[in-house]
Inverse folding.
């Protein structure tokens, strides 16, 4: 049996993915930047579930990080048959007021590294005629999101890319799944430097565990996309029936203005 590799595994949704995979007896490679947190997680997964757990500390916004991670696992002889591309972040800011380096990092992490890892590990999985890939998108994938323009666009990319590749590999033993959660109770908003309230901080978030249970089932059954939670379901339905100018205005209102509450 191969390994499962989870990016962004130190907290939130990624940590739950690492746990559920280990619970099911899967050896895991946990990836994020903070080495101590990763090592503690790997030790915990080993102790609780008896699996082999490997910690890899790497900054996935770095240009060659996907190559580096892939080489590292290949050289160690770990065959990755399950890949969870989860690491990502958002930034609440007007695009022209954003810090370009942070914006570039967002695009690198949310899109380029995710795509590159899908490519590298997907080709390896194809050689073995088996593999599962799950890419974490969001309800944001359904919309254009003023004041979070790059984040929404990056998630629209993840969903579209994942759906297309899922069709390409259908029937080959590989599956590629997009997970679209709505607001989830993690430290995500803190990292987005959200000040004051916005819509996402005002609805009751889902627990990362509940989100991951749905995502895990969808991945294991080879579904192409899974929409989790009421906000996501209503969001994608609204995106189908309302004109884009209306959903843009709703998102602008819901996202709020950086530094100022939406309501
Ligand atoms: N929370 C929500 O409401 C929500 C809703 C929809 C979609 N999502 C998506 O779900 C995914 C996970 O979100 P979350 O809420 O669980 O986030 P989170 O709590 O902020 O955790 C993010 C994880 O990614 C890692 N990470 C961040 N930057 C990284 C980098 N440059 N290189 C490597 N690892 C990095 C972090 O660990 P280190 O700090 O140790 O690197 C952490 O383990 C994201 O793709 C997000 O867009 C979240």
């Amino acid at each position: 049996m191969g390994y499962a590799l989870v990016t962004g595994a130190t907290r939130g949704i990624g940590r739950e993915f690492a746990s559920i995979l280990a619970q099911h007896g899967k050896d895991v490679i946990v990836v994020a930047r903070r080495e101590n947190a990763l090592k503690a997680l790997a030790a915990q997964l080993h102790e609780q579930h008896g699996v082999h757990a490997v910690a890899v500390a790497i900054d996935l916004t770095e240009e060659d990080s996907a190559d580096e991670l892939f080489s590292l696992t290949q050289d160690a002889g770990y065959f990755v048959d399950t890949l969870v591309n989860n690491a990502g972040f958002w930034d609440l800011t007007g695009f022209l007021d954003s810090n370009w380096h942070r914006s570039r990092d967002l695009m690198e992490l949310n899109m380029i590294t995710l795509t590159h890892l899908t490519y590298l590990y997907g080709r390896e999985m194809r050689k073995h005629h088996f593999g599962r890939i799950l890419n974490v998108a969001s309800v944001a994938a359904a919309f254009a999101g003023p004041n979070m323009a790059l984040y929404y666009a990056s998630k629209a990319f993840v969903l579209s890319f994942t759906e297309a590749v899922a069709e390409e590999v259908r029937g080959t033993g590989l599956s590629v799944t997009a997970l679209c959660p709505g607001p989830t109770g993690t430290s995500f908003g803190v990292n987005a430097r959200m000040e004051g309230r916005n819509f996402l901080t005002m609805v009751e978030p889902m627990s990362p565990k509940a989100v991951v249970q749905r995502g895990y089932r969808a991945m294991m059954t080879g579904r192409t996309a899974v929409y989790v939670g009421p906000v996501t379901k209503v969001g994608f339905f609204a995106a189908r029936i309302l004109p884009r100018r209306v959903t843009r205005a709703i998102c602008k209102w819901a996202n709020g203005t950086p530094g100022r509450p939406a309501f």
